[in-house]
């Protein structure tokens, strides 16, 4: 039984987040997808092909953690990447996926590398469990594919080994980030994208 009040509340919050992320240029041309957990076994996710800066509460679909719809409509093609995270981490409440220029370009500029190490940045403290800049956080980069189930399986096996990983990149595609609730997820995404922009700038300066 879907909690329709919670569904509506989450949908309104995700639509507002979408407006903000669209203004930043991180979800151009209907790209990206967003979700929030409903309960232990379900989440709401953006419907396929919607403009992410102009979402309404009817643009969301409830899905189970096998990425199958449990309300009417067609969920995002990348739903399985969201539900993999909810299934892997019972404590997370929101997942955001964006196609920001920094995530897209940096993952391509790092061709042949499957890990991005972020070290010594003050903003690393935005990630859960980190209280000093004198540390490093590793972000995996997965190859892009249209085989979403196989990508979800790859992400799942990496995250099983690295449960504190705050997000991942898909090469030439974008970034996935998650958090205990939507505000936490937005804060982590903002920090992660800032750090990606810094890495990109450093790469430019070193060439
Ligand atoms: Zn995408």
UniProtKB/TrEMBL annotation:
Binds 1 zinc ion per subunit. The keyword Lyase applies. Keywords: Amino-acid biosynthesis, Lyase, Metal-binding, Methionine biosynthesis, Zinc. It catalyses: 5-(methylsulfanyl)-D-ribulose 1-phosphate = 5-methylsulfanyl-2,3-dioxopentyl phosphate + H2O. The gene is mtnB. Its EC number is 4.2.1.109. Residues 12-200 form the Class II aldolase/adducin N-terminal domain. This is Methylthioribulose-1-phosphate dehydratase. Belongs to the aldolase class II family. MtnB subfamily. Its cofactor is Zn(2+). It comes from the Bacteria. GO terms for molecular function: methylthioribulose 1-phosphate dehydratase activity. SMART domains: Aldolase_II (SM01007).
């Amino acid at each position: 039984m879907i909690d329709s009040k919670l569904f509506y509340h989450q949908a309104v919050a995700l639509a507002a987040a979408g407006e903000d992320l669209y203004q930043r240029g991180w979800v151009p041309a209907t790209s990206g997808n967003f979700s929030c957990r409903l309960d232990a076994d379900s989440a709401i996710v953006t419907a396929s092909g919607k403009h992410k800066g102009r979402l309404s509460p009817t643009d969301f679909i409830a899905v189970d953690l096998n990425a199958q719809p449990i309300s009417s409509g067609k969920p995002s093609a990348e739903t399985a990447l969201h539900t993999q995270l909810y299934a892997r981490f019972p404590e997370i409440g929101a997942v955001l996926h964006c196609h920001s220029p920094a995530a897209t370009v940096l993952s391509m500029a790092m061709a042949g590398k499957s890990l991005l190490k972020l070290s010594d940045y003050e903003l690393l403290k935005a990630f859960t469990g980190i209280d000093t800049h004198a540390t490093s956080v590793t972000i995996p980069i997965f190859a892009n594919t249209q085989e979403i189930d196989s990508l979800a399986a790859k992400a799942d096996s990496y995250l099983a080994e690295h449960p504190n990983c705050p997000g991942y990149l898909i090469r030439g595609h974008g970034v996935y980030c998650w958090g205990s609730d939507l505000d936490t997820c937005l804060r982590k995404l903002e920090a992660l994208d800032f750090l990606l922009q810094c890495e990109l700038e450093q790469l430019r300066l070193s060439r």
